[in-house]
Amino acid sequence: MTATLAPEKTLIRIGHSPDPDDAFMFHALANDKIVSPKYRFTHELQDIETLNRRALKGELELSAVSIHGYAYITETYALCHCGASMGDNYGPMVVARQPGDLASLAGKRIAVPGTLTTAFLTLKLCLGDTFTYEVHPFDEILNLVEAGKVDAGLIIHEGQLTYAEQGLSLIVDLGEWWMKETGLPLPLGGNAIRKDIGTEAMHEVTDLLKRSIVYGLEHRREALDHAKQYGRDLDDAKADKFVGMYVNDWTIDFGPRGKQAVVELLNRAYAARIIPNPVTVEFV
Question: Does residue 121 sit in the same domain as residue 178?
Fold first, then answer.
């Protein structure tokens, strides 16, 4: 009798950032807590600006992207309905060595973590063209500000919890600013899935992503133990807090309000001529 070979699984290359929230989200898929009969996954960990740039070239089947970056890849990718990083009255921050307000940033040189990040887009919406900027790796920005090499820094990820430890002052929390402007949470990032894998696969892979998120939330201690290795010196309490900020009910599903926030952000970006074309948002 001839043995029947199992069909080869379809490879899905996942890109996400080496941060506690993404690691928490993908723990179940990365560590075989969820096994698919049809798909196998590899994980490529890179900073979000690099992933945005790779998405412009359609390199990965499933990738974390900034909502700003998504504006440029709509022909190639759709947004998964799950996997959101939402700033619910909090988000990226501008910090400086001395206290100040928004007006104090006029004419200043601000270090930013990439021009395709939603943090940069929101800063442009907030300040217009009143500042200059330099692009630096996100995990170098606090040190640059502390050393006086730039006037201020736009910080994302765990820097939002640690900037005060370097003697820096908060100038503006862009998530708070956006909430006051719109009454909506700030949609910072999501997961984009490539359309050419086909409609069925897009839905099935998105469902596996959602299952991974739910698994992490239901097995929090286990997922945190995996995630904290990416915490860059965050203690357990701060790692738990950071994950809670960006992996929560919004991450399970954008929902109507979260989807409204994405549309509002991109509409305002187009109106302000920060992005060149209007965006029709497609969710899977």
Answer: yes
